[in-house]
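Hey Z.,

So I finally got round to the protoporphyrin IX containing FE thing we talked about over coffee. Here's the setup:
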Amino acid sequence: SADQKLIRESWQKVGVSPLEHGIVLFTRLFDLDPDLLPLFQYNCKKFSTPQECLSSPEFLEHIRKVMVVIDAAVTHLENLHCLEEYLANLGKKHQAVGVKLESFEAVGDSLLYMLEKCHGPAFKLNVREAWTKLYSAVVKAMSCGWDV
Ligand code: HEM
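And the result:
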């Protein structure tokens, strides 16, 4: 579909340097919601600043993991249900580390922010809307793993 074409085209540019773009995304996320910082702990050590977190190898690995999941969603655009089980399980893991479902809204805003930074004026409203739909589908699938 037209939406799928827009998403694939806009993701191509991100894919050239996923880590760099992921850093833009998470920098924005910590600006929007600094309370997410303490959820990232490696060897029980809390980061005292977003900068410290953003320069830790373990956190950069998490950024890579996030970008791989988005890449998988882009690859499976027309059959996202292939990823449903994986995403529900991923949701479960995030609930276990203390992430709240509501926090995924700020993640979505940060994703759009990153894409806008990457594409500039080429990031038109229709591209934004296509991404909003895809991201909502990913969050919906992840939320299936949440126990109430
Ligand atoms: C794992 C936090 C968003 C994908 C983790 C871990 C933490 C975490 C603490 C375990 C440690 C680690 O693997 O680094 C968060 C927080 C988020 C967030 C606070 C935002 C509120 C996301 C998003 C995705 C994602 C949006 C992908 C769409 C992953 C993956 C893993 C992971 C693939 C590894 C799971 C595994 O070990 O099987 N996350 N995460 N995360 N996260 Fe996130």
